[in-house]
Amino acid sequence: MANFRKAAINVFRVINSNKATVAASTNPLQTLRPLFSYSIFTPFSSHSQTQSLQIDLSNEESKRRLFNRLVYRSKQRGFLELDLVLGKWVEDNIHSLDENRMRDLIYVLDLENPDLWKWISGQEQPPESVSANPVFAAVKERVMKNLDSHSAPEARATPGQPWVRGWDDIKKGRDGPVSGNQ
Predict the structure, then answer these.
(1) How confident is the model at residue 49 (pLDDT cuts 50, 70, 90)?
(2) Rounded to whole angstroms, how far apart are CA atoms 116 and 85?
């Protein structure tokens, strides 16, 4: 019985792979994608979808899809601080962005997480191409305004300097912890 089941599954795979081959030969876009529905996208690369992302604001459905995609990308970066900062900013401003600002937002979303966080939080100076981006400037302005209104300047690192690790930086003596706050 198990052999019959395996044979049936293999026949099903062969039939579906033949359909995929026929579809790929008739549709040139399908030839870029391998069989068995593996895609070009990998979860470790933020640059895989940028070439194919078309900004179409002509009808409500395409607008809704684009807005949802950008909000999702801004909230699900895998870097908690950026998820909160970018996600909130995009949620608040996505409906007021025109096509050029959408492209600027996509450019910001394609930046690497650690670099973007250091630039937004003022730990490092961003490159000229990034600091000239109006979306980046608006996000950074919002972060700096929140820092100024919610934290004392003495509690922050000086601009351009890395942040200190925390309360265990002082305890480097003989009886101090080896690492962390243990």
Answers:
(1) very low
(2) 11
